[in-house]
Design a protein that fits this description.
There is one protein chain. By secondary structure, the protein is an alpha/beta fold. It has 8 helices and 10 strands. It has a 6-stranded mixed β-sheet with strand order 6-7-8-3-9-10, sandwiched between helices. Strands 2-1-4-5 form a 4-stranded antiparallel β-sheet, with helices on one face. α2 packs across α3, α2 packs parallel to α4 and α3 packs across α4. It is globular, with a radius of gyration of 18 Å. The site of magnesium ion has 3 residues, from α1.
Length: about 240
C-alpha cells in the first residue's frame, strides 16, 4: 500500500513561502499529473515527496509512513528529472545497474533486474553504449531504466520529456503509459504539456502559487474548470 498523503504541507525558503497548507491524497497505483505556471512549486513538492527537501510544516506520508529527509533513498521512491544526469564514463548497462551495486546486490541479481528494466524500455541493443553515443530520447529511456530497476512503489517524474522533440515526446509518453500499466506503481508527474496531462492522468492537479487551484479527472477539469486559470491549463471546451 503506497498511498501518498500530503497533510497541511508548508514550505518556505527563508521568507519566501513556496507551498502553503497543501492537502492532497494520491491513491496507490494511480497516475497523478501536476500542472501550473513556472515557479508555482511543482518541483519543490516532488522533492519533498522524494524526501530530498526538508518540509517546513505538515507532513508527507507514503504507505502510512512519514517521509523523513534523513532516511535513506530505499523508501521505494524513484525520481526522474528533466536533465537526465547519466554517468558519462559508464555504459547503459552500468548506468542502470549502478544503484543496485551501491545497495550491495550481487552480480546475478543485478544482471536479472537490469535485463528486465532494459526489456521493458527496449534498451537491449544499446546496453554497451556510453551516454555520448545515445540520442536524447535514448538517454531519457536510460534515466527511466535507472528508476525502474529499483522497483519503486512511487515514481516521481519532473518534466521528463520537455527536452525532447515533439515526435519523441509522443512515443515516450506512450512508453510511460505502458510502464504504468505494466508496473502498477504510483506515478506522480509534472508537465507543461496539456496532451501529456490529459492522456496520462487519472487525476490532474492544477497548482497556482503553492496552492491547489483544482484537482480532478481530466474529463472533470475539461468539462467543469472552476475558473479561467484552470481552463487555460487544461484547454477549455470549444
Ligand atoms: P516549479 O517547479 O513549479 O517551476 P519550483 O518548485 O522550482 O517551481 O520553485 C518554486 C519557488 O521556489 C520559486 O519561486 C523558486 O524560485 C523557489 N525556489 C526553488 N528552489 C529554491 C531554493 N533551493 N532556494 C530558494 N528558493 C527556491
Ligand atoms: Mg520545476
Amino acid at each position: 500500500m503506497a498511498d501518498v498523503v500530503l497533510s497541511n504541507v508548508d514550505k518556505s525558503y527563508g521568507a519566501l513561502e513556496v507551498i502553503g497548507g497543501l492537502n492532497l491524497s494520491i491513491e496507490d497505483g494511480s497516475f497523478t499529473v501536476f500542472v501550473g505556471p513556472s515557479g508555482c512549486g511543482k518541483s519543490t513538492l516532488l522533492r519533498m515527496i522524494a524526501g530530498l527537501e526538508p518540509i517546513s510544516g505538515g507532513e508527507v506520508q507514503i504507505g502510512g509512513r512519514r517521509v523523513n529527509e534523513a532516511e535513506p533513498i530505499e523508501r521505494g521512491v524513484a525520481m526522474v528529472f528533466q536533465n537526465y544526469a547519466l554517468y558519462p564514463h559508464m555504459s547503459v548497462e552500468q548506468n542502470i545497474g549502478f544503484s543496485l551495486r551501491m545497495a550491495g546486490l550481487n552480480r546475478s541479481q543485478i544482471a536479472t533486474r537490469v535485463a528486465a528494466a532494459a526489456a521493458s524500455l527496449q534498451l537491449e541493443p544499446l546496453m554497451k553504449r556510453k551516454p555520448a553515443e545515445l540520442s536524447g530520447g535514448q538517454r531519457q529511456r536510460v534515466a527511466i531504466g535507472r528508476a525502474i530497476v529499483r522497483n519503486p512503489e512511487v515514481f516521481l517524474f519532473d518534466e521528463p520529456l520537455s527536452n525532447l522533440d515533439a515526435e519523441l515526446r509522443v512515443s515516450m509518453r506512450v512508453e510511460i503509459a505502458k510502464l504504468h500499466r505494466q508496473l502498477g506503481s504510483t506515478m506522480i508527474y509534472v508537465t507543461h504539456d496539456q496532451t501529456e496531462a490529459m492522456t496520462l492522468a487519472d487525476k490532474i492537479v492544477v497548482m497556482r502559487a503553492g496552492k491547489i487551484e483544482q484537482e480532478g479527472t481530466p474529463e472533470a477539469l475539461y468539462e467543469d474548470p472552476v475558473n479561467m486559470f484552470v481552463a487555460g491549463f487544461i484547454g477549455s471546451p470549444r
